Amino acid sequence: IIAKQAYIVQVSTAIGCFSGLWCSAEPVVSRKYIVELDSDEVLTPDAVEHADSNKPSIEHVDQVINIIGYVEEIQDNVMVLRLQTSLMMLEVSSELDFRQYIGHYVRVRLCEIKLYDTGIY
Question: With the C-alpha atoms ordered 86, 100, 46, 43, is the resulting torsion angle positive or negative?
Answer without folding.
Answer: negative
